[in-house]
Amino acid sequence: MQFKFQPILNLKKHHEDKCRTRLSEEQTKLLRIKQELATLAKAKKNQQKEVETLLVGKIKPELLTSGSKSLEYIHQKQIETNTRKSIQEEQVNLARTVLIEARKGRKTMEKLKENYMIREQQKIMVTEQKRLDEVANNLFYREQR
């Protein structure tokens, strides 16, 4: 009772595992980008507080300019990181879609294997039943003589 498509099923399982690993990697990348955004937001908030403290008392234009440039740099990094985040979210969705397709393919092959095994078991049962019927008939005819 060897399922002749077992190598294909094994390949589909391997492909599904690779897709699952890729999805995990893509999700990890997205998580890092989100953490980077959180860090940038925190840095921006701290820089804004620092600029606000420079506005109190004696104002030094070079410090205000430096603080403004830092805020602008952080803002620009946030825009770039948000763009990367959008691209990475698309990558995660693509990897998820590929995984779903791989899972469907594997499940289809497993269902074929399951049906094959059921049919083979039924063939074996029919063969056994025929043998038992033959033995019973032989015993019956022997007792009749």
Helix content: over 70%
Strand content: under 5%
What would you call the shape?
rod-shaped
Low-confidence stretches: none
Query: What distance separates the N and C termini?
Result: 41 Å
> What count of helical segments does DSSP give?
2
Order of helices and strands: HH
Number of domains: 1
Average pLDDT, rounded to a whole number, is 91
Sheet having the most strands: none
Rounded to an integer in angstroms, the radius of gyration calculated over CA atoms is 34 Å
Task: Walk me through the structure.
- The protein has 145 residues and is an all-alpha fold.
- The chain has one domain.
- It has two helices and no strands.
- The protein has helices at 6-54, 61-144.
- Helix 1 (6-54) packs antiparallel against helix 2.
- The chain is rod-shaped and about 125 Å long.
- It starts with 5 loop residues before the first helix and ends with a helix.
- The model has no long low-confidence stretch (mean pLDDT 91).
